[in-house]
Each structure stands twice: as C-alpha cells, then as structure tokens.
C-alpha cells in the first residue's frame, strides 16, 4: 500500500480534497515505507544508485524539514568544518539515519582532500 506520511492511503489524496482544504501538510509528505518500495523497484531494474537515494530519502523523511534544510546548507562547500560535519553525522545517527550519516562522513573526507572545508 502506498501512503502519505500522515498514514492516509494514497487513494484518499485527491485534488478535490486538496481544493476543499481537507488535506494537511503530512498528507502530501511521502511516507518512508513508500520510498523503500521505490528503492526495491529501482533495485529490480538494476539501478542500485537510485535505490540508495530512495533509502536515504526514507531516513530523512523522519527528520524535521527545517533540520533537513540546515543539513543541506551545512553540506555546501566551505560551509562547515570537519568537526561540524562529524557532529552532523552523529545527529543523523541519532534519528536513526545511518545511511545519511555515512554519506556525510564520506563527504567530509572528500571535502578535506579537496580543501572544501571551512
């Protein structure tokens, strides 16, 4: 079953309901399980990179939007120090978002090699 973050079934999410203001913000957010299903489809079609992206997105679906935007900003070149990126990875581990945390740690290593840290 495909469902929204709110738990509503996707079939309940219609333009008419949106126009009548019967849907809330969580009704238009994707549910982590839906992203996992998309990852499985990507794997079946020999696209492991896309599957990995969907799985990281599923982890981030549980993180508040303002924090995701702050993380995005922190990952831009020259915006964070190595210590700040390590703290960001630890925060992600706490959600838990281990795939995203691993990606941040990898980015920190690459940023250090390419002189992209603050």
What does this structure look like?
- The N and C termini lie far apart (44 Å).
- The protein has six helices and no strands.
- With 118 residues, it is mostly helical.
- It has a domain at 64-118: Orthogonal Bundle (Hypothetical Protein Yqey, Chain: A, domain1), CATH 1.10.1510.
- It has helices spanning 15-19, 32-44, 48-60, 65-74, 82-94, 98-113.
Number of strand segments: 0
- Which parts are unreliable, with pLDDT below 50 for 5 consecutive residues or more? none
Protein structure class: mainly alpha
Largest sheet: none
C-alpha Rg (nearest Å): 17 Å
Helix content: 55-70%
Question: How many helices?
Answer: 6
CATH third-level topology of one domain: Hypothetical Protein Yqey, Chain: A, domain1
How would the global form be characterised? globular
Distance between the termini: 44 Å
Name the CATH class of one domain.
Mainly Alpha
Assign the CATH superfamily of one domain.
Answer: Propanediol/glycerol dehydratase, small subunit
On the 0-100 scale, what is the average pLDDT? 94
Output the helix-strand order: HHHHHH
Q: Which architecture name of one domain does CATH use?
A: Orthogonal Bundle
How much strand?
Answer: under 5%
